């Protein structure tokens, strides 16, 4: 879910994102409630956008790589290695 409306990134928005993230993060999309969503959904929440994990302020290259980064984190959290995550 992507919103093409331009976003003004400033200290106020950054503080809002940090406040939401400080409540905690979850693996996967989660729910639109502080402490119960992933970091991308937290950014959308701070921007008053629909719940989703694809905020428009995230660059295309980052979006392409976030799934693989999440896979590595998941495998390592389970005691695996980066090499196993890349298999």
* Mean model confidence by pLDDT: 78
- Quickly count the helices: 4
Q: Determine the strand fraction and express it as a percent band.
A: under 5%
What does the radius of gyration come to?
14 Å
Topology as a string of helices (H) and strands (E): HHHH
Distance N terminus to C terminus? Answer: 29 Å
Q: How many domain modules?
A: 2
Give the strand tally. Answer: 0
Kindly state the percentage of residues in helix. 40-55%
Judged by helices, strands and strand pairing, the structural class is: mainly alpha
Sheet of most strands: none
Give your account of this protein's structure.
The protein has 87 residues and is mainly α. It folds into two domains: 1-56, no CATH class; 58-87, no CATH class. 48% of the residues lie in helices and 0% in strands. The protein is built from four helices and no strands. Helix 1 packs across helix 2 (39-46).
Give me the secondary-structure topology.
Layout: H1 11-22, H2 39-46, H3 60-77, H4 82-85
Helix pairs in contact: 1-2
Keywords:
mainly alpha; 87 residues
Can you describe this structure in just a few lines?
With 87 residues, this protein is an all-alpha fold. Helix content is 48%, strand content 0%. The chain folds into 2 domains: 1-56, no CATH class; 58-87, no CATH class.
